[in-house]
Write a structure and sequence with these properties.
By secondary structure, the chain is mainly α. Helices cover 70% and strands 2% of the residues. It folds into 2 domains: 1-63; 105-351, Orthogonal Bundle (MetI-like fold), CATH 1.10.3720.
């Protein structure tokens, strides 16, 4: 391996500087070209704002489009650790894409588990997490929305799990799940009970992963739902009380519909984040139990442990389309309109 000599460092720095300079020149050229087209040719009134926004827009486009495009190209290859370059057998073609995508559903993703058992584990994991976040978050948000002493302190304490860096929280929880000195097992031993093998038993390992992420995710959902509750006008509840409505009726016909503009994006983001969660399932599952792997951790193992890069690229696209279909379906099911004094649900019913 070549050592980092001053000459090599200077050469690398020169190449980086040349690349940065080229990018800056290209961005400036695009900006002036855009301004010329909008102002001179089209006489657009917003030519200058578009010119100023252009660098950020181009950067975001490249940041999103390039990885997706490269991943799509990679799925058309047979790239692996042995076939990393054309000279070593790397090929491109539809045949490779068909083999990769068919292999995702027919071949083992891990050493033993196939796609659909891993998908079931992922869906179960996502359902448990999002439903727990919403239910517990709503419960805590309703409590914190009521007048009480030290409410500000409670809100601050609630944010601690969310504010702690995730990797630190995961490592702390993994220590708590240790068989010998973890706090839950210490309590069980003091009661004369058998300690739980949190990290080696498949069932309890999956439970440990869920407990950790529930602890981490509930504060975010609580803060989001609390903001939604505080935006609801109290006159709705006062008017319903005059009509004799109970707490359950108020919650189902006033609270839930009116916080839906807040809850819908929170649930969608929660599903996407949980579906793509990597740190918690990967680090809690330190013994690499395949029963606790979800699609994202299986994708990581396929790419960087089994070195099946073309296959993993196709696998990543399958995961992307699963989330895309869910998001579109959920948005369609939760479509709504809100007008002053009137709530129009997706079924078309109106309540004044």
């Amino acid at each position: 391996m070549q050592s980092l000599s001053p000459q090599l460092f200077a050469k690398s720095l020169g190449e980086v500087g040349t690349t940065i300079l080229f990018v800056l020149v290209a961005i400036i050229a695009i900006e002036f070209l855009l301004y010329y087209i909008l102002k001179v040719k089209l006489n657009h009134v917003y030519a200058l704002p578009f010119m100023l926004v252009a660098p950020a827009a181009i950067g975001l486009l490249l940041l999103v489009a390039y990885p997706i495009g490269y991943n799509a190209v990679l799925s058309f290859t047979n790239m692996s650790l042995r076939r990393f370059t054309v000279e070593r057998g790397l090929t491109y073609g539809i045949k490779n894409a068909v083999e990769n995508f068919v292999g995702v559903f027919t071949e083992p993703i891990l050493k033993q588990r196939h796609f659909f058992p891993i998908l079931f584990t992922t869906v179960l994991w996502t359902f448990i997490q999002v439903s727990s976040h919403v239910v517990l978050g709503m419960f805590l948000a309703i409590l914190l929305n009521r007048p009480m002493k030290l409410r500000g302190i409670y809100r601050t304490l609630l944010l601690f799990p969310w504010a702690i860096p995730q990797i630190i929280a995961v490592l702390a929880w993994r220590g708590e799940f240790n068989y010998e000195y973890g706090y839950p097992n210490v309590i069980l031993k003091s009661l004369g009970l058998e300690p739980i093998r949190w990290l080696s038993d498949p069932f309890w390992n999956f439970a440990a992963i869920n407990i950790t992420n529930i602890w981490l995710g509930v504060p975010f959902m609580t803060v989001v739902l609390l903001g939604g509750l505080q935006s609801i006008d109290r006159t709705y509840y006062e008017a319903s009380e005059i009509d004799g409505a109970g707490k359950i009726y108020q919650f189902s016909h006033i609270t839930l519909p009116l916080i839906q503009p807040v809850m819908t994006p929170a649930v969608i983001l929660g599903v996407i984040w949980t579906f793509n969660m990597f740190n918690i399932p990967f680090f809690i599952n330190q013994l690499e139990l395949e029963s606790s792997d979800i699609l994202v951790t299986a994708l990581f193992r396929a790419a960087f442990e089994y070195n099946r890069y073309g296959f993993a690229a196709a696998f990543a696209l399958v995961n992307f389309f699963i989330l895309l279909v869910f998001t579109l379906a959920y948005l369609k099911l939760t479509r709504f309109k809100f007008d002053v004094g009137t709530l129009v649900t997706a079924t078309g019913k109106k309540r004044r």
